[in-house]
Amino acid sequence: HAALMRSAWIGEPPKEAADMMKVCQEALQVSLDAIRPGEACEVPHIACQKVIDRAGYTENFKKRLGYSVGISFAPDWGEGAILSLNAGVKTELQPGMTFHLPPALRIYGRFTVGVSETIVITETGYRALGTIDRNLLVV
Predict the structure, then answer these.
(1) Are the beta carbons of 121 and 93 closer than 8 angstroms?
(2) Beta-sheet pairing, 126-128 with 117-121
(3) Which residues are paired to 99 by β-bridges?
(4) Sequence ranges of the domains in the chain
(5) Per-residue CA distances from 51 to 2, 70, 86, 116, 127 (Å)
(6) Which residues pair with 121 in a beta bridge?
(7) 79, exposed or middle or buried, with CB in 10 Å at 0-12, 13-18, 19+?
(8) Are 35 and 93 in contact (CB under 8 A)?
(9) Is the N-terminal amide bond of 75 cis, ω within 30° of 0?
(10) What is the C-alpha separation between 123 and 54, in angstroms, rounded?
(11) pLDDT tens for the chain, residues 1 to 139
(12) Main-chain dihedrals φ then ψ at residue 127, nearest 5 degrees
C-alpha cells in the first residue's frame, strides 16, 4: 500500500476552497516535474513553495513538501532516518528512494484541501504509485 490524499466536499465548495485546491494540484505537479536523480531534496519543495507563494497562500502552507516512506522505517513508515523534501535539504535524490508528497493548504478552524502522491525515484524521474484522479470530489 501507499499513502494517498484526495479532497472531497459535501455540497458546493466555497470559491476559496476550490481555488486553494487548484493551487495544491499545480504545486504537486510542478514538484513532480522537478524530481530527477541527482537533484537535491529541496528542489521539488522549492518548486512547490513558489506556486503557493505566487498564489498568495504562503501563510496557509507551513510545512515541508514531503517525506521519505518505506518498510525499513520500523515501527511505521515515518520513523527512523526520515528524509524531508524541504528547503535546505541537500541530499541528492537517488533511484529507489520513496516519498509521500502531500501539499495541502489550510484555513485553521474552517477547512483543509490537499492532494498527494507516493512516488518512487527512477533512473529518469519518478513513478507514481497511485492512479486515482486528483480532482476535488464534490458530492
Answers:
(1) yes
(2) antiparallel
(3) 68, 119
(4) 8-138
(5) 25, 28, 15, 15, 22
(6) 126
(7) exposed
(8) yes
(9) yes
(10) 31
(11) 789 999 999 999 999 999 999 999 999 999 999 999 999 999 999 999 999 999 999 999 989 999 998 876 665 665 556 889 999 999 999 999 999 999 999 999 999 999 999 999 999 999 999 999 999 999 9
(12) -130, 120
The DSSP result for 30-65, as a single string, is HHHHT--TTSBTHHHHHHHHHHHHHHT-GGG--S-S
Which cell numbers hold the place of 102? 502531500
Q: How far apart are CA 18 and CA 135, in angstroms?
A: 10
- Cell reading at 41: 531534496
State the DSSP code for 92: B
pLDDT of residue 133: 94
* CATH code linked to domain 8-138: 3.90.230.10
CA distances, 27 to each of 24, 31, 52, 134 (Å): 5, 6, 7, 12
- Which residue type is seen at 97? M
